[in-house]
Amino acid sequence: MKKHNFSAGPCILPSEVLQEAANSVLNFDNLDLSLIEISHRSKNVVAVMDEAVALVKELLGVPEGYSVIFVQGGASLQFVMTPFNLMKAEGGKAAYLNTGTWSSKALKEAKRLGNAIEVASSKDKNFNYIPKGFEIPSDVDYFHTTSNNTIFGTQIKDFPKAEGLNVCDMSSDIFSRQINVADFDMIYAGAQKNMGPAGATVVIVKDEILGKTGRDIPAYLDYQIHIDKESMFNTPPVFSVYVSMLTLRWLKGIGGVAEMEKINQAKADLLYNEIDRNSKFYGTAEKEDRSNMNACFLAHEGVDTALFDEMWKAAGISGINGHRSVGGYRASMYNALPLESVQALVDVMQEFEKK
Ligand code: PMP
Questions:
Q1: Where are the domains of the chain?
Q2: Is 250 annotated as ligand-binding?
Q3: Binning pLDDT at 50, 70 and 90, where does residue 1 land?
Q4: What is its main location (predicted)?
Q5: Separation of CA 10 and ligand 1 centre (Å)
Q6: Would you please indicate which residues are annotated as catalytic (active-site) residues?
Q7: Using alpha carbons only, what angle is made at residue 27 by residues 234 and 248, rounded to the nearest 5 degrees?
Q8: DSSP label at 237?
């Protein structure tokens, strides 16, 4: 029996996806060769890349005029590629909404290349809310947001929109809820939450915004090069793209993002209702901003957390320790986590309260 895997990332993937991936590592497409020991330019691997791109477009309803690419370097490299590709070389300016550790890191990288400003921050309350009602200067090249704050458990529900380009890091909630891609000029996400194993990062970019900064962009950092080479400028992270493709097939099979959103809402409601009801615990994020992916909660003063820790471990639960900067607990409920796992955690919380 597998554990109830609440890991924050890398995280749970559907078991049927893991099974098929395991088979393909041994013998891919009946070639009598492993997926990871053949050329990325072989027709079977090119077909994987094409299907992965097509599934991203289909599942997110990516409109005409956008390209979808897979690159390496994680979302962290996107913190660098974004300003390289979108911030003007002369007088470049960008605005960042600082909602947590990852937004702060993205902002820091952009500052190396130009005038990157923080339009608002929730640092004053350890990032437990999403700032609202701030001004975004009209003269910025782009405005950057982070849709879901993986560490502190907040999520943007209504995306603020800038007059300039709108860029979003959706690493920890892509494919978990419906989004209107046309509201964004660029979206990026590391694979290792709702999509697949670490290694690949998906970038969805509006073609017309590229090539306008006057910057000399190093080849690997240039989106246009990856688009022109159909994500095969250099050796792509074949295994990560393949497992992402399988996961996206699985998502399509269960009814796509709209269906997934309903399931994720049910999981989040189940856990948050218990956190709010249970006298031993309390949620750390502001209710209106809390994340359907990562639920952060703490035990009240004087509660015997050692006993709680023993109990959830005995129930086969894994990965609910909070991030070191927050402490307490963080239950991540990514797409592949079944409702039964959330119920198992809720049962332990209720049993613990009675003890
Ligand atoms: N952005 C967000 C929202 C994340 O959750 C993470 C990783 N947890 C990152 C960026 C950094 O991603 P990577 O490790 O792929 O560079």
A1: 15-253, 256-354
A2: no
A3: low
A4: cytoplasm
A5: 10
A6: 102, 169, 193
A7: 65
A8: -
ipTM over 0.90: yes
**Contact status, residue 293 vs residue 332, Cβ threshold 8 Å:** yes
Rounded CA separation 111/93 (Å): 9
Strand residues in the chain grouped as ranges (E): 4-5, 66-71, 93-98, 115-121, 142-146, 148-149, 154-155, 165-169, 186-190, 201-206, 281-283, 294-299, 317-318, 329-332
Q: Is 85 in the pocket of ligand 1 (CB under 6 A)?
A: no
Paired with 93 in beta bridges are 115
Atom of ligand 1 minimally distant from the CA of 8: 8
Q: Are 245 and 48 in contact (CB under 8 A)?
A: yes
pLDDT over 80 (residue 124): yes
Q: Is the CB of 190 under 6 A from ligand 1?
A: yes
**Under a CB-based contact definition with an 8 Å cutoff, are residues 167 and 140 in contact?**
no
CB of 102 shorter than 6 A to ligand 1: yes
Domain 15-253 class?
Answer: alpha beta
| 39 assigned binding-site residue | no
CATH class in words for 256-354: alpha beta
Q: Is 122 in the pocket of ligand 1 (CB under 6 A)?
A: no
